[in-house]
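Q: Got a minute? One more chain.
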Amino acid sequence: MPDTPLDSETPEDDAFREAGDAVYAELLSRLGEAEPQPRLHATRRAVETLGDPHRAYPIIHITGTNGKTSTSRITASILRAHGLRVGLFTSPHLVRFNERIVIDGAPISDEALVRNWVDIRPYIEMTDAALVAEGEPRLTFFETMTVLAFASFADATVDVAVIEVGMGGEWDSTNVGDGQAAVFTPISLDHMARLGNTVAEIARTKSGIIKPAADVVSAAQTPEALAELRRAAELTESTLAVQADAFDVTSTAVAVGGQLVTIRGIAGTYSDLFLPLYGDHQAQNAAVAVAAVETFLGRGSQTIPRDILEEGFATATSPGRLQLIGTEPTVIVDAAHNPSGAASLAAALTSYFDFDEIVAVLAIVADKDIHGIIDQLAPVVSRFHVTQSQSSRSVPHDELTRDVSRWARPDEEIVEYDELFDALDEARAWAASAPRRAVVVTGSILLVGEAMAIADDRGWKQS
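A: Always. Here it is, folded:
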């Protein structure tokens, strides 16, 4: 069941692409994702005006700090292998806006995107007017994006929607939907200005996606995070399946192009399955996805047929996560943007690859734990090429270079670049000048997306 464009027989023409880009530009005129509004009533008002499209299908709702997108994508892939038509909503996008709304394995076509936007725009504008009249900001970018995704899934008549939370949980706009299954990836410190200063506070906010009588699946958590999830499950009379107790990864082994994993699920054990993703953390994400699907299909009592799970894993992708975007020399991108993500990246580079030296092309957005990220990367890289993404949130390259210089190893070379193009070109030249060297682009999802676009434009995989 390979991923193919929705309109594969008729390529989308330039007019629809331009119209799709115009929709994105219109959404960008709204309050951005960096400034989420802690409210649900605005999104709820919009979907109610539209006739509640989010109630046209069951929802698997996924939150956490790291691994949300990968877990969402693996979950959707398994469900598709099971024969279901699946809607998948993730954020942010890497290269193109359409990536956020995936229908049956492919990003929404520009034609469908534009058609759905034209349909809902009058209702969005009605909601905006009502909010402004009450002294509130109009719908934000992400609130509007969420409404568009719910409407698009209803229009596509999906059997199930896998919905990744944007930020937090309790007041995230996706939480207008009632998840039949509420899924938690590992929770750690991130977005503290918005979610809280402790893991317990952040977990409390994220636990808000647990609805009455839901089935809850959680990755292994710290004791303080798990306590919050248990409390929320008890209050809502929901079931709770936690990794290590209810399910787990039994073993992993490095394989060409990924790894072989054995997973003890809630309903059964699945041995020696090939997962085409690198890193022990991806095996953990796969285990959570398996438990989520078992829970959704049979409340944890129904095993997944092996052939379906094999196909679901084989077709699973996780763009921007330990993804090879260039060869000769090797260029890998990874969207690690907090210390936990950087730790997973560092562990994977050591365990799954055989490089002698690595150059990290690095940019980080403001409000991230720069010190924590550098502490994790410094032991495994030989040099840093410090730059910045095109986002206004990106830490200026001169400021980031000073920070990296403070926390990198004394023997690590640190070079500053105004432009990502130059940082990449010189990193590739350095990597190509000796065997067993590689380039890793990391620190920011925005940076990874820009690097992927450059690699595609320059044809690095064919170099």
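A: DSSP finds 15 helices and 17 strands in the chain.
Q: Perfect, thanks.
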